[in-house]
């Protein structure tokens, strides 16, 4: 049983390494970074306490928001999805990504206290 | 035959009308009438005030002292070219005996010319009154048609009142029917305030003038005015509720209204008031009533009758159809002759004698007072176990018992007595029968209530053991007082009956009575500021900060491994500008966190953001072009 799981995972990693374009891998690395940052913040909150609560929320929301925006960027940039995003060029997607981040960071900095 | 009719109609009325007919709540007393006369007797300064004074006083039945002097004053102030002046002079001179106003043909022509549709109702009123007062002929029909035209044009309350007043001066042959109907229309315009008052919103003067005009016109054509009895009483309330008058014209209007209400052919409101308090007793056995008209003049033709008098408490009838006798202008009835028990009685009084009387059915509450006497006051000290018979001491009012009584916890102190009416000997149960024990030394007093039993014998028992809390267990000599009082008693009683020495068990040291510590400074409240939350130690915080920042290193490593680079970095101005702008925005975020507020940040963000946007737009467009070319 665990054998098949391991084989599935290794197959997946192989496929990923080979067939994913570099740009997407860059974004994936970024996603991993964001996820780890968020997870570590959550760990701190569990271990040490929620004081100050607003700061914790702010940081966590920042991670979550960034993750979501990066996922959106990845979806829009992926050439395999080109059919669904005919009117949105990769540059446009990136510009949207930057704008949304500006708004997100405005809110986050306001809330972080 | 006359009283029989009156009685029968009253009987029917009292059966049919369960709701009480209105009686006046406000009326002029003799002092008010005197004040009204005084206001009208003030020395007059001009023709108008002379008119108000002279004619007003004549309505009250008083004639000016110096008739000749007044006549000369009127003649010297008369302006024959003014209709108003002629009106005042003519009316005033008519009220004075033997005063003549010289009338020329021009004057007469002026007055006659004023009677037309083009003059105001007030002018028509003045000229018609002047013509009739001076004895000059006038064409009544012309006046009627002019008045009708003015009423439809002016249609305000005062104009219609003046039209009514004018119509009462015209010949009885003229067609006054339509003007007579105006009385009913005006009556409909009166405001009913709480069912008590009826008045025009224009005020007291208008209401009073309406009453006087309506009755003078009704008397003139001999037709009863369409005012119901209740309305008449409400008008009386409105007009006579004000006892001091702002102006001469207001006083004049009240005097006219009073005169017309006391002397007209249809409605004469009757004012019934008790002389002094409505109370009788053995020393004052007569119930005296004043029955007058609105001007406080006694009604000569009236006969006053008590229809029924019943006790308020028991509702048993005492009197039925008992007449009052007239003596010196006051109606009186010897109520004590019917030997009523003390208490309150509801009287229903009827005034007959004239079919014009309005509000001639009055309800009165009469109090019968009496003197109380205390009989058989017996004091005794009874042993609780009844082994020793009680020693009873009788005390006579108002003396005090010679020996003082001793009672300790094994004994009860008892008191019995009877309260009777002094003259009749009937037992009484007054509202207040208290027994008060007063400690002379400490000033403490305790009050108990003495209750009557079924035979109206009052008993009071003091159980020393049971009542020790009321006394705070303070033993000593207490003075015993009996207090008797009631509204119907003429002689309330406070009687020091005896001295009682009380001995209580377990005498607690009587602490001085603690004055309530209400106004002493209270303990100070210390304000507790909110405790700051416990912060984790700095080591932990620093450790976790480093931990949270560590994935960034991982990211850089991964990117390096993936071969992310900036080899495609074109050094065009838009690119540089974009990157600078973006860096500035991130810097702004940091500055926002440390220094700024949202408004300032938005301001800067707008500036930097728009630059960055333009530059970025350019840069990305170039990139897109390059990508598409490269394809």
Descriptive notes:
The complex is a heterodimer of chains A (113) and B (631). With 113 residues, chain A is mainly α. Chain A contains four helices and no strands. Chain A has helices at residues 2-19, 22-48, 53-77, 90-112. With 631 residues, chain B is α+β, with helices and mostly antiparallel strands. Chain B is flat and about 135 Å long. Residues 13-19 of chain B have low confidence and may be disordered. Classes of the chains: A mainly alpha (113), B alpha+beta (631). The interface between A and B is medium-sized, with 29 and 36 residues. Chain A: Belongs to the DAD/OST2 family. Chain A: The chain crosses the membrane at residues 30-49, 55-73, 93-112. Chain A: It is found in: Endoplasmic reticulum membrane.
Q: Taking strands numbered 1, 2, ... along the chain, how are they ordered across the largest sheet of chain B?
A: 5-13-11-7-8
Instruction: Using the alpha-carbon principal axes, give the shape of chain B.
Output: flat
What kind of oligomer do you see?
A: heterodimer
How many structural domains can be distinguished in the coordinates of chain A?
1
Shape of chain A: flat
Please give the count of helices of chain B: 16
Query: Measured on Cα atoms, how large is the radius of gyration of chain A?
Result: 18 Å
Q: Structural class of the secondary structure composition of chain B? A: alpha+beta
The value of Rg of chain B in angstroms is 48 Å
- What is the average of the pLDDT values of chain A? 88
Relative helix content of chain A? over 70%
Q: What's the helical proportion of residues of chain B? A: 25-40%
